[in-house]
Each structure stands twice: as C-alpha cells, then as structure tokens.
Amino acid sequence: MKSILLALLVFSISVFPEDNIVLVISMDGLRHDFPEKLQTGGFSLISSKGLKAESLVPVYQSTTYPGHVSIATGVHPDKHGILHNSFYDKKKGSFSYSPDASWIEAKPVWAYLEERGIKTATYFWVGSETDWNGIEITYSKFPFSSRVSEEEKIKQILDWLSLPDDERPRLIMTWWHGIDSTAHKYGINNKKTMQSLIQQDQHLLDLINQIKDKDLWKNVTLIVVSDHGMTDISNLININELLKTSKIKAKSSIGPAIGHIFLEDQSDLQKAMKALKQNKFIEVKRKNEIHKSLNLLHPTRTGDIVVLTKSPNMLVSRKNNNPPIGMHGYNPEVNKDMEGIFFAYGNKIKPLQIGKVHQVDVAPTILSILNVEIPKYMEGKKIDLN
User: Fold this and answer.
1) 230, 31 in Cβ contact below 8 A?
2) Cis peptide leading into residue 61 (ω within 30°)
3) Which CATH number is 12-232+333-369's, of 3.90.180.10, 2.30.30.40, 2.60.120.820, 3.40.720.10?
4) Are 56 and 356 a contacting pair, CB within 8 Å?
C-alpha cells in the first residue's frame, strides 16, 4: 500500500507542477537609467527586495512593435518578421500597426503555452489581438486604446490572479504607457516626462501592494521590462525627397533609424545609391551588404537598399510641421540611450543585481520560471534570477 501511495504522490507531482504565475509588464520607452531618478515607489521597492539588471538591450530597430514581438517570441526581427511598427512586404503588402498576428512569423510564448494546455492572458500586447495560426489566447483584452488607464489594467490583472486555480492564467503580459508618448512630445529631460515616470512608478507600487493584500506573492513572479529607451533628436532627413529629386520611383518603408527602399526598376540601383549618399548623415547599403549581426535581413521585408542613421538624426518620409523631440529606434550597440529596463520581483526571485540582459532572453526566462521546456527556435537564453 505504501508503495502505491508513493507512486501516486510522484505521479501527482509530475502532472501538477508548481502553480507559479508570471506577470510581465512592459513600460513603453522607459530608458535604463530612469528608475534611478526615483526615491520611493515600485522601482525602489523592487531594487531593494528583488532583481535589477543593469539594462535590457533591445533589438534593432529599437521601436515598439519589434521590441514587444521579440520579448514574446525570443527571436530577432529577421526571424519574427516585424521590422518596425510599419513596414512593407513584397508579397503581402503594407503593414501598419496591424492587430493581425498572422504577420508574426515565430511562435509567441502565449501560443507555445496554450498548445500545452497552459492558460495565458494579455492586455494590449503587440500581436495578441487575434489567434496565432489558429492558437487562441484564453484571455485577451483588445482592441488597443491609449486611453485605457493603468488602474483599469491593474483591476483586470487582479481579477485574473483571483480566478480559481483551473481558470487562472499562468502567464499575464500587459503593456503600460511608460514615458513614450510624453518623451516623444517634450523630450527626455522635460518635467512632464518626469511626471509620467513618477505616475508609472506609483502604479507599479499600487499593483505590488494589492497583490500583497491578496496574499498572492507566493505564486507570482513579476517581470518589468521596456521595449526600448529614448534620446533627444534634432535633425530630420526626408528620404522620399532625396529619391524624388533624382526622379527615382520606389516604395519606401521608413523608420526613425532604418529605411527600406524597394525600387520599381532595379536598373536604378546605382542612381538611387548615389542620390541617397548625398546626405552625409546617413549610411546607404545594398541588401546584400547588410551584416547578419544586425538581424535586419528578411526575405520579403528588407529593401533593395537599406538606409541607416544615428541620433540625433531621424529618417522621415514626408514633411513634419510638428516633429518629435524624443525618439528611439537606433542601434543599441552604438547608442546606450536605447537600452531599456529589466526588473524582477516575487516568487523565485532573490535580491540581486545583474549585468545587461537582452530582449530575446525574456521569453526563455518566462518558460524557465514556469518549468516549461524552452524550444530550440528561441534565440535567447534564460536569465538566472536567483
């Protein structure tokens, strides 16, 4: 009888692993050094009782859509296909802030978990508004609206965490405003940007305290990240105007730091290269000259010509009468201002300070916390949290 009971116990442990929950919050545009400006609040609490990384290195182009999809898939943009918030695909056409997850070419972590019978939840995470290749998220809040407050998101998070064990998601991922829109409008050193930071910090503390009030920290691991950092810019470069002046017909897909040029006539290649090189602030490369380490080479979404720039320059496709002051998108290997944040707190986390981590490391780390096998397609590696 004892041997039977022991066998049943071992079986139950293997079938029902520890019911840990991972909660991921992304604060848009929060640069790596901004939490150091705060004295009290959520970040100070986590810094003293949880884990703080030196920074989180984003993918390139360091913008919202590539960043969030890289966090969710564990691969770089050349693998998941989301090169910017908007881009052009030679076969599918134009993508612009689309909610359609079919554009994502690598499996998001929520789809990977749902396939294994593990419930997940998302609240305004890029790529989570529709099913991915027929795999649906158990709980998903959409459509996206920047008017939805962090208070509403916190209430929903707590409702999900309070569900019965068999209904509760084991992964929750949510987007928060961060400082992105304020810093774009006013710049990184403006007092209004600091006010946005303080508000986000307080919301984070409120969430931490409310989870504590419900006595849920024994089952919850919180990870706080950002999709990119932020820097001030001062020079706009109109790529379409450069092409137009030389009478070159092309489809352009322009981000703040990277521009993809799809020529209508391939015989215009040299002429287009020469026209673009007239601007001393940009680097101009043929598609086959792009180094693999930049992770920009996609079979149908990388242009015939790729234009690169550094801050304080910004690529644009048309005249802008009200240009941004703060911007991102630049190569994090060149511009440290692009680096974001990585904090962790709660179950399975020890007070610790670590070095830099990468965006593609987040998805493998989530799976590690949940005791789920990390798939080979993920390019990142799990972060040691304790």
Assistant:
1) yes
2) yes
3) 3.40.720.10
4) yes
- pLDDT, one tens digit per residue, over 177-212 is 999 999 999 999 999 999 999 999 999 999 999 999
Residue 277 phi, psi dihedral angles, 5° rounding:
-70, -5
In this structure, is the dihedral angle defined by the CA atoms of residues 44, 151, 31 and 293, taken in order, positive or negative? positive
Parse the chain into domains and list their residue ranges: 12-232+333-369, 235-323
Q: CA 20, CA 220: separation in Å to the nearest integer? A: 6
For residue 87, is it left (φ>0), alpha (ψ between -120 and 50) or beta? beta
Calpha distance 187→182 (Å, rounded): 7
336-378 pLDDT, tens digit per residue, is 999 999 999 999 999 999 999 999 999 999 999 999 999 999 9
Cis peptide before 312 (omega within 30 of 0): yes
Q: What are phi and psi of 129, to 5 degrees?
A: -85, -15
pLDDT digits (tens, 9 = 90+) for 213-272: 999 999 999 999 999 999 999 999 999 999 998 999 999 999 999 999 999 999 999 999
Given a contact cutoff of 8 angstroms between Cβ atoms, the answer to whether 84 and 253 are in contact is yes
Return the CATH fold of 235-323.
Gyrase A; domain 2 (3.30.1360)
The amino acid sitting at 32 is H
As given in the structure block, the two tokens for residue 251 are 């489809």
Q: Residues 311, 256: contact at Cβ < 8 Å?
A: no
* E strand or H helix that includes residue 3: helix 2-15
Token output for 34 = 């901004």
Give dist(CA 129, CA 269) in Å, integer: 39
Task: State whether residue 127 is helix, strand or coil.
Answer: coil
